[in-house]
Amino acid sequence: MEDYYDLTESLFSAKAKEGMIAFAGFAARDDPRLQQGVLKVSALCRPDGSGYLTLTFVIDLEDDATGKAALEVRFARADQDALAGRLGPDFEMLLEVPLNPFAAAPRFFVDELNLYFRRLAGTERLLLEQRIIPELADLLDLQFETLEWLDGAEFGPSTVSDHRNASLVSHVKQCLEASLTKK
């Protein structure tokens, strides 16, 4: 009997266990087609104080297939060279992980940036609010809403709700609040 490794299942499992610390809505300043996106921020700190922040961008394309190609070009601007000059001496590297299972979902664009820092523990909020978000806003020409901080909350499964008329950001917020009230 042959054992196999389901990469898609492993990816979804890992994403569900990430230490989410914050989220925010965003929109493009220069493209009226991109009016609604959500940024999810997760953090992992090592015992030596180093670690990484995972920034996951999710954009509802609302059946605009041409928008995906434009977004790929936009997010390609956030590469190692561009970020190294903007994020300071503690920034070690950018690791981009292809999220291929999401590529088949034509309605959504998903991109992820893993930002590694030599010193991260205790500086996550400062780094995000004063350096990373402003620099990404400038580099990617995005307007971010204020980060919503989760302050170490643990999350269980979210409830399903009717969100057809709600924005993507308000739907994420509603799901997070519902999971917190279940405790």
Written account of the structure:
This protein is an alpha+beta fold and 183 residues long. 34% of the residues lie in helices and 26% in strands. The chain is built from six helices and seven strands. A hairpin with a 5-residue loop joins strand 2 and strand 3 (51-60).
Summarize the structure.
34% of the residues lie in helices and 26% in strands.
Shape: globular
Number of strands: 7
Determine the structural class based on helices, strands and strand pairing.
Answer: alpha+beta
DSSP helix count?
6
What's the pLDDT, averaged over the residues? Answer: 78
Largest sheet: 7 strands, antiparallel
Could you give the distance between the termini? 42 Å
Uncertain stretches of 5 or more adjacent residues: 153-166
User: Helix-strand pattern, N to C?
Assistant: HEEEHHEHEHEEH
Tally of domains = 1
What percent of residues are in strands? 25-35%
What is the helix fraction of residues, given as a range? 25-40%
**How big is the Rg?**
17 Å
